[in-house]
Write a structure and sequence with these properties.
alpha+beta; four-stranded mixed β-sheet; 7 strands
C-alpha cells in the first residue's frame, strides 16, 4: 500500500507542478519594426499590451533578456513600460539572407515569476539607393 500511495502522490505532485508551470509562462507579444531604428526608439509598450501595473515594474525587477546572445538589442523603460532599442539593429547582420528576420527576447518579472516571450520582426529597409546608367538607351520594337 505504501508504494501505491507514494506513486499516486508523485503523480498528483507532477500534475500540480505542470499546472503551476503553465501559469509562469504567459502570452507572447509580437512587434514589427524597421531595421536601423535609432537607439532608444520605442518598439511598443509591453506594460500596456500585457496589462502590467507600471508601479510594480521596478519592485518586480522587470528586465529584458536576449535569447542565445549576450548582445542586448532592447531594454525596458521601467517608468513608462516601453520596450526600447538599446542599439541599432541591422537586419543583414542579425539574420543574413533569410527571407524573414525574427529576434526573440524574454521579458522577465519576479515576485511572482512571469516570463513573456517577445518576437521582434525586423523589416528590411532599402538602405542601398538604386543606381542608373547615365546613358539613355532607346529600343524600338
Amino acid at each position: 500500500m505504501g508504494d501505491k500511495g507514494f506513486s499516486a502522490l508523485r503523480s498528483i505532485f507532477c500534475f500540480a507542478s505542470f499546472i503551476v508551470a503553465l501559469h509562469l509562462v504567459n502570452g507572447d507579444l509580437s512587434y514589427s519594426i524597421p531595421e536601423e531604428m535609432k537607439r532608444q526608439s520605442v518598439v511598443g509598450n509591453v506594460a500596456k499590451d500585457l496589462g502590467l501595473d507600471l508601479r510594480t515594474l521596478s519592485s518586480r525587477n522587470a528586465r529584458v533578456d536576449s535569447e542565445g546572445t549576450r548582445k542586448r538589442n532592447c531594454d525596458m523603460n521601467l517608468s513608462t513600460g516601453d520596450l526600447v532599442t538599446s542599439e541599432r539593429m541591422d537586419r543583414e547582420s542579425l539574420c543574413g539572407k533569410k527571407p524573414s528576420c525574427v529576434v526573440k527576447v524574454d521579458l522577465v518579472l519576479e515576485n511572482p515569476l512571469e516570463l513573456h516571450r517577445v518576437s521582434l520582426h525586423i523589416q528590411d529597409v532599402n538602405d542601398n539607393s538604386p543606381t542608373f546608367k547615365k546613358q539613355l538607351i532607346e529600343i524600338e520594337i
